[in-house]
Design goal:
By secondary structure, this protein is of the alpha/beta class. The chain is built from nine helices and twelve strands. A hairpin with a 6-residue loop joins strand 8 and strand 9.
């Protein structure tokens, strides 16, 4: 929904709100954590029903503010994953999504000092001693980025752990069941909505499971080629109101 400037255009917000007024359930599904992500999504003026964050790791009912679901790694799994990646890839930086916020080690901050919102990250002392209720693990490498880093990390962790990227230079690990497709499927089941009734939009690798699962998966024109290949169709780019155009067409039909 966001443009290249990480903002939703007024046209997109208007389309989303028109869909809600027409009785369509509207969900934001993102890699962002709820700490800032949920507020960012609603600050656009979009009247969303649910926020699914951390690539499917948690879900908030925005009509009540309730955190309905949050999936976490077992502490011993976090220790094992961190040890395996460190041993095989050499000096890498780590970040962790905890119950109370995001924490980063010194190397992660050195390699990625600024967040996507433009705020400066700060390393957290004794990060490794706080590995409880971890919903997401961030991994950054000094020389390898994005999809290439996914390819390096995936063989080093258990097969049921999701390893993906949202376009940032680092990669993101979430526990079993914490991918966008699975999270959206769980929400749809609770609401009695068939997947064939669902339209999903995406542009990056972390959207693949959702676009493949949804009845109508739509890639943005600015999406990765692998995302376009997995989608049923392609709309115009985020900057060219691709989401709004599809919603407007649905409402006219």
């Amino acid at each position: 929904m966001f443009s290249s400037a990480h903002l939703a255009t007024p046209r997109t917000v208007a389309a989303v709100n028109a869909a809600r007024d027409a009785g369509i359930h509207v969900v934001a599904v993102t890699g962002r954590s709820w700490f800032r992500g949920a507020a960012l999504a609603t600050s656009t003026g979009a009247r969303l029903h649910h926020f699914i964050g951390s690539n499917g790791g948690h879900r908030i009912d925005l009509t009540t503010g309730t955190l309905d679901e949050r999936l976490c790694f077992a502490p011993e799994v976090v220790e094992s994953v961190v040890g395996s990646i460190s041993a095989r890839l050499g000096p890498v930086g780590f970040g962790f999504e905890l119950g109370e916020g995001l924490v980063w080690d010194e190397l992660f901050v050195e390699l990625s000092p600024m967040s996507i919102e433009g705020t400066r990250r700060k390393p957290t002392a004794s990060t490794r001693g706080r590995l409880t209720e971890v919903g997401k693990i961030f991994v950054i490498h000094p020389d390898v980025e994005r999809v290439d880093l996914v390819d390096l990390v995936e063989p080093l962790v258990p097969a049921d752990i999701n390893v993906t990227t949202s376009g940032a230079v680092f990669v993101e690990l979430t526990p079993a069941g914490a991918d966008k497709g699975a999270a959206l499927a769980r929400l749809a089941e609770t609401m009695g909505i068939d997947r064939m009734e669902i339209v999903a939009f995406g542009d990056n690798q972390n959207d693949l499971s959702m676009l493949s699962w949804a009845g109508r998966g739509i890639a943005m024109a600015n999406a990765l080629e692998t995302v376009k290949a997995a989608a049923d169709e392609t709309t115009t780019s985020n900057d060219d109101h691709g989401v709004a155009k599809v919603i407007e067409a649905i409402l006219r039909s």
